[in-house]
Specification:
By secondary structure, this protein is of the alpha+beta class. The protein has eight helices and 17 strands. The chain binds 6-O-phosphono-beta-D-fructofuranose and manganese (II) ion. The site of 6-O-phosphono-beta-D-fructofuranose has 10 residues, from α6.
Length: about 325
């Protein structure tokens, strides 16, 4: 095998922390197994009858795809028995998921989006699984939603697995960002992208332009400048991408830089943004900041937000440091 396996990598990390019990290492291993199982179902697609709608809606009022439901179940079944988790929260479940009484309860909480970008499944584009691990507060015998409502700064691990041309698991435990590619011949994730870094500058932006008329003025101004490039106030021309799959978008940022925005808009005034704080914005912010980038709502650091609701939505502006700072400065000037 060329390169270090994920198992070797996390055991080496564990050895650097003499107080570690090994519990967290085992949890990461089980998570990797869950991602392999999900990747397999995604890959089987139409062969397993996995495409199309499930005929139900999630708490967000979004139509669930069959694979949203299948992958949610797979994730829960892969992790509920392990003894490492105290409870789980899923984008696809209204309520907190308790550990069944027959299994031991552990010290960690996990928030997850089992299949991000699922509108892309039927058109065969990249989708992924996102997760965020928190410590369960001491003495919480019966974890409730309140125990999950911790700011993103409290995350001890965040990651995502992208099911694209290759399956890649990207992980941070607060010590940089590393990417592991699934080697199907041996069934192991192998370290292929050590110490991923986001360049401070970029000339690529990602935003759903069809929402343009609904954005606030600072975002209007920023995007207009990007579009005008050298003919406007900027020193360079910009390129644009929009995949409508956050995992794919963030993976691109980690590979070649860029800025990604899903800002607040007045399309649906009661929704403060589209992306979910606990399942999408916090884990991706942790990864982006660990790779040297920045992450903001435009008005505050995403990971400083004290969550009020497990399914809460937030505006998201993240990626290459200098561009994010520019968008934030436009918000400050407006206020
Ligand atoms: O889960 C939310 C999500 O699918 C993200 O992965 C993606 O960035 C976004 O929604 C796409 O939104 P839209 O369909 O508005 O472009
Ligand atoms: Mn999602």
């Amino acid at each position: 095998m060329k390169g270090e396996s994920l198992t070797q990598f996390i055991i080496h990390e564990q050895r650097r922390n003499p107080s570690a019990s090994g519990d967290f290492t085992l949890l990461l291993n089980d998570l990797a197994t869950a991602c392999k199982a999900i990747g397999h179902e995604v890959n089987r697609g139409p062969l397993a009858g996995n495409l199309g709608l499930a005929g139900s809606e999630n708490i967000q009022g979004e139509a669930q795809k069959k694979l949203d439901v299948i992958t949610h179940e797979l994730f829960v079944r892969s992790l509920e028995w392990t003894g490492h988790l105290a409870a789980m929260a899923s984008e696809e479940s209204d309520e907190i998921i308790q550990i069944p009484s027959g299994y031991p309860r552990g010290k960690y909480l996990i928030c997850f989006d089992p299949l991000d970008g699922s509108s892309n499944i039927d058109v065969n584009l990249s989708v992924g699984t996102i997760f965020s691990i928190l410590r369960c507060p001491e003495g919480a015998k019966h974890p409730s939603e309140a125990h999950f409502l911790q700011p993103g700064r409290h995350q001890i691990c965040a990651g995502f697995c992208i099911y694209g041309p290759t399956t890649i698991l990207v992980l941070t435990t607060g010590n940089g960002v590393n990417g592991f590619t699934l080697d199907r011949d041996i069934g192991e994730f192998v370290l292929t992208h050590p110490n991923m870094r986001i360049p401070a500058d970029t000339s690529e932006f990602a935003i759903n332009m069809s929402n343009r008329r609904y954005w606030e003025q600072p975002v209007q101004r920023y995007v207009e400048e990007c579009v005008k490039g050298r003919d406007g106030g900027r020193e360079k021309d910009f390129n644009m991408r929009w995949i409508a799959s956050m995992v794919a978008e963030i993976y691109r940022l980690l590979t070649r830089g860029g800025i990604f925005m899903y800002p607040v808009d007045n399309k649906e005034p009661n929704k403060p943004g589209r992306l979910r704080l606990m399942y999408e914005a916090n884990p991706m912010s942790f990864i982006i900041e660990q790779a040297g980038g920045l992450s903001s709502t435009g008005r505050e650091h995403i990971m400083d937000i004290l969550p009020e609701d497990i399914h809460q939505r937030v505006p998201v502006i993240l990626g290459s440091r200098n561009e994010v700072q520019r968008v934030v400065s436009y918000h400050l000037e407006q206020n």
